[in-house]
Specification:
The protein has helices at about 10-25, 30-40, 50-60, 65-90, 95, 105-110, 120-125, 130-135, 140-145, 155-165, 170-190, 215-225, 235-250, 295-310, 320-330, 335-345, 350-360, 385-395, 400-410, 415-425, 460-480, 495-505, 510, 520-550, 560-575, 580, 595, 605-620, 625-635, 640-650, 655-670; strands spanning about 190-195, 210-215, 260-265, 270-275, 425-430, 435-440, 445-450. It has about 675 residues and is mainly alpha-helical. The protein has four domains: about 10-170, no CATH class; about 185-295, no CATH class; about 300-375 and about 520-670, no CATH class; about 385-510, no CATH class. A hairpin with an 8-residue loop joins strand 6 and strand 7 (about 445-450). The radius of gyration is 27 Å and the shape is globular. The structure holds zinc ion. Zinc ion (ZN) binds near residues 468, 472, 498 and 501.
Length: about 675
C-alpha cells in the first residue's frame, strides 16, 4: 500500500453541507461542517472521486435516533472485533507465553503474527473509519480538559471512538518506525559489558568472573546491590559510575562492548588483550585491543528513531508531533503540567532532608551515583527462605493459586460475593517468563493471570509478582465488565493500573498471614518511593528536553545531538542534583537505555509513582479496599485529572507523594 495524494474537496464540502443541512436541519450545521472537514482531511485519491465523497457523506451522515443507533452498532462490533482478535492473538502466543509443553520452531512464527495489525488500514479502505469521522467530532486534549467534566458518559465514549481513527499512517511510515525501533532495540539488547575485565589503576579486577552486565539495567542494579557491602562496595560503585559516564559521553572504546576478550581500565581508557577467559567460546583470531571510541552510535540510533517517528506528523488529525502524541494523546496530560509535576518533586525541600538521612546512613558525603541509593528497607521480618517454604507448600501449581483467588480477595477486603465473581473471571496460567496480567477485551472472555511456577512450586518472588498481576486482573475485570460503555473500558493510562497493582503487591505478606513487618516499614517504603521518583523525574526531564531539542533541530547530526544531550543532562543535574551531591556537570541521568529506544516513555515511571501514591493514600484513608477499587476501576478511560478527581477528589499531582515523604521523615525522627 502506498500513499495516494489527497484531493481537494473544498468545493464539494460546501455543496454536501448544504444538502445535508437541508435534510437534517440547521441545528446539525456544526456537526456537518466538522464531520465533512474530518473526512476530507484524511480522504485520499484512492478512496474515490469528489462525487464518491459526496455520495458517501449523503449516505452515512446520521442525526437524532439514527446517530444513537449508529453509535450502538459501532460499539457492539468493535467489542466483538477487538475481543475476538485478542483471543486469536492469545492463542497464537499460547505456547510461547506458557510453560506447558516444549516450544516448536513454528511457535516463533505464530507468536510474531498479529492478526489485528491491519485493522485501522482496513477500516479506512472499507470506509468504516470515515463513517466514524463523519459523525463524531475528534477533540483535542485542551477541549477535554476544558469541558470534559460536563460531558455525558456517552460523549466520552464517543471521544474514545474517534481516537481509534484519528491517524491514518501510511504503511511505509509505520514500517520506517518499526525498523528504527528494531535497530535501537537490537543495539540496546546487545550492549553488554564484561565487568571482570574492568581493571583499576593497580591492575586489580573488582568484579567476579563471568559477570556480564547489560546497560543500563544490570549496571544500575549491580551498583545498587553493592550498598549491602557498605564501604567495601564503594570502589565497585565508583567504577560502574565511571563506565556509565563513558557510555553517555561515547568515550567508551568500541572494542570493549559485548567483548569478553579484552581488559579495560575505565579511568584511563586503556584496552589490552585479556589473559582471563570467563566466557564461552574462543577469542576471535583478528582480536584488536583498540582504544578507538564508539562512534556516537548511541545518538545515531536515537536520531533515527526521531526521524522515523517524525514522518507520522502530517498524518495525525490532532497531536501533530511525537511530543504531542506522547503527552496529549497517550498520557492525556499536557506537557507543561507534567514538567511542573516533575520539577515539584526535584525542587522539593524534602530532597535535602532525605539526602541528609541517606548521608547519615552511609557515613560519607553523597556521590552522584547515590541517586540509586537502595538502602531503605521495608518488608518482612522473616527471611525470604522461610517465605519461599510457605509459598511452595501453598501453591505447588497454577491450579492451587486459582483455587485460592477468592479467599485471597476476601482477605484483601472484597466482599464474599464480589470475590467469588472476580475469581470466576480470572484464569491462572503457568508462565514461561516472570509473569504478566492479560486482560480480556470482550465481556464473554476472562482475564488471565500468568505466573511463574518452578519445578518445586511457586517461590516468594513469584508470589509477590503474582499478587501484583492479580491487582491488574481485578482492575481489568471490573473495568471491562462493569463500565457502562465498552469504549470506556480501562483506565486513563498505564500508570493507573500499575497503581492498583502496587496496592495489591504491598499487601502480599498479609496474604501469607505474616504480620511481622520490619519496624518502620511504612516509612522506609515511602522514602524509597520518594527517592526513586526524584531520580527518575530527573531522567524524565532529560528525556523531554532531548525530544524538544530534536524537534527544534530536525537536521542535527549525531555528534550535535550528543553535545545537546550532554548539555541537557548537565543542566538538569546542576539545577536539581548538584546542590545535594556536591559535584557539578554530571551526565549520569542520561544513561537510561529508554532514552535511546523508548520514544519518550520515561516520564511514565515518574508520573506513575505519583499516581500510585495518590491512589494508595486514598484507599488507606477510606479503609475500604474492595469497594474503592471497584468504584475506581469502573470510572473508565476518562482524562487522568477527571478520573483522579472522581476517584480521590484531587487532580493528578505529586502532593500525596510529598505528604507521605514528610510524614515518613517525621516518623524516623521519633
Ligand atoms: Zn504491573
Amino acid at each position: 500500500m502506498s500513499t495516494s495524494p489527497a484531493i481537494d474537496l473544498t468545493a464539494t464540502c460546501g455543496a454536501v453541507a448544504a444538502a445535508l443541512e437541508a435534510r437534517h436541519g440547521a441545528a446539525q450545521r456544526e456537526r456537518i461542517t466538522v464531520g465533512l472537514r474530518q473526512v476530507a482531511a484524511l480522504w485520499q485519491g484512492r478512496d474515490g472521486t469528489a462525487s464518491d465523497f459526496e455520495e458517501f457523506a449523503l449516505a452515512h451522515f446520521a442525526a437524532g435516533a439514527a446517530l444513537d443507533a449508529l453509535f450502538a452498532r459501532l460499539e457492539f462490533v468493535l467489542e466483538s472485533l477487538h475481543g475476538h482478535m485478542h483471543e486469536i492473538s492469545r492463542d497464537l502466543r499460547w505456547h510461547s507465553d506458557l510453560d506447558l509443553e516444549s516450544m516448536l520452531p513454528l511457535d516463533t512464527i505464530l507468536s510474531g503474527y498479529d492478526p489485528g495489525a491491519h485493522f485501522v488500514d482496513d477500516a479506512f479502505d472499507n470506509k468504516l473509519a470515515f463513517v466514524v469521522l463523519l459523525n463524531f467530532p475528534s477533540t483535542s486534549l485542551a477541549q477535554r480538559l476544558d469541558s470534559g467534566a460536563l460531558w455525558s458518559r456517552q460523549r466520552w465514549a464517543q471521544a474514545r471512538l474517534v481516537d481509534l481513527f484519528s491517524r491514518r499512517i501510511p504503511a511505509h511510515v509505520t514500517l520506517a518506525v518499526a525498523e528504527a525501533a528494531g535497530a535501537s532495540d537490537r543495539y540496546i539488547a546487545s550492549y553488554n559489558l564484561w565487568a571482570h575485565h574492568w581493571v583499576d589503576d593497580q591492575g586489580q579486577r573488582l568484579f567476579e568472573a563471568g559477570k556480564k552486565l547489560l546497560s543500563h539495567w544490570n549496571l544500575r542494579d549491580e551498583l545498587k546491590s553493592r550498598y549491602a557491602q557498605g564501604a567495601d562496595g564503594l570502589p565497585h560503585q565508583r567504577m560502574i559510575a565511571q563506565v556509565m559516564d563513558r557510555i553517555v559521553t561515547q568515550t567508551i572504546p568500541a572494542a570493549v562492548i559485548d567483548c569478553p576478550w579484552v581488559d579495560w581500565n575505565p579511568a584511563t581508557n586503556t584496552v589490552t588483550p585479556s589473559s582471563v577467559h570467563d566466557a564461552p567460546g574462543t577469542p576471535p583470531t583478528d582480536l584488536r585491543a583498540d582504544p578507538a571510541a564508539e562512534p556516537d552510535t548511541r545518538y545515531q540510533r536515537l536520531l533515527q528513531c526521531f526521524q522515523a517517528v517524525k514522518q507520522m506528523d502530517p498524518f495525525c488529525l490532532v497531536a501533530p508531533t511525537h511530543i504531542d502524541r506522547s503527552f496529549d494523546d497517550e498520557r492525556q496530560l499536557p506537557i507543561d503540567r507534567a514538567v511542573r509535576m516533575l520539577e515539584d518533586v526535584c525542587a522539593s525541600p524534602l530532597v535535602g532532608r532525605v539526602a541528609h538521612v541517606i548521608q547519615h546512613r552511609l557515613g560519607r558525603p553523597l556521590e552522584p551515583f547515590d541517586v540509586w541509593y537502595s538502602g531503605f528497607r521495608a518488608g518482612a521480618g522473616v527471611s525470604e527462605a522461610s517465605l519461599d517454604q510457605i509459598v511452595q507448600l501453598r501453591y505447588p501449581n497454577a491450579q492451587a493459586f486459582k483455587s485460592a483467588l477468592a479467599p485471597m480477595l476476601v482477605k484483601l477486603g472484597f466482599g464474599e460475593e464480589r470475590a467469588a465473581w472476580l475469581a470466576s473471571r480470572i484464569e491462572v496460567d503457568p508462565a514461561r517468563g516472570s509473569g504478566h496480567a492479560m486482560g480480556a477485551q470482550r465481556r464473554g472472555d476472562n482475564a488471565r493471570l500468568r505466573t511463574r511456577i518452578g519445578a518445586r512450586g511457586m517461590d516468594y518472588k513469584g508470589f509477590n509478582i503474582a499478587v501484583h498481576e492479580l491487582g491488574h486482573n481485578v482492575e481489568q475485570t471490573f473495568s471491562l465488565n462493569c463500565v457502562d460503555h465498552w469504549l470506556l473500558n480501562g483506565v486513563p493510562n498505564t500508570a493507573f493500573t500499575e497503581a492498583m497493582a502496587f496496592v495489591f503487591q504491598a499487601l502480599d505478606l498479609k496474604l501469607l498471614d505474616q504480620t511481622t513487618e520490619r519496624p518502620g516499614s511504612d516509612a522506609e517504603r515511602s522514602l524509597s518511593a520518594f527517592w526513586s521518583t526524584y531520580e527518575i523525574a530527573g531522567v524524565s526531564l532529560v528525556d523531554i528536553g532531548i525530544w524538544q531539542w530534536m524537534y527544534a533541530h530536525p537536521d542535527a547530526t549525531a555528534a550535535q545531538l550528543k553535545e545537546a544531550v550532554l548539555q541537557i543532562a548537565k543542566d538538569v543535574w546542576n539545577r536539581y542534583y548538584a546542590p545535594h551531591f556536591g559535584q557539578r556537570d554530571c551526565v549520569l541521568l542520561a544513561i537510561y537505555s529508554h532514552i535511546v529506544h523508548s520514544f519518550l516513555y520515561v516520564p511514565d515511571y515518574a508520573i506513575g509513582h505519583m499516581i500510585a501514591c495518590q491512589i494508595e493514600q486514598h484507599i488507606q484513608k477510606t479503609g475500604k479496599l474492595g469497594e474503592e477499587i471497584e468504584r475506581m476501576a469502573t470510572l473508565g478511560r476518562l482524562s487522568p485529572d477527571l478520573w483522579m478527581q472522581q476517584a480521590t477528589g484531587q487532580p493528578v499531582g505529586p502532593q500525596a507523594l510529598l505528604d507521605a515523604t514528610a510524614s515518613a521523615l517525621g516518623k524516623l525522627k521519633q
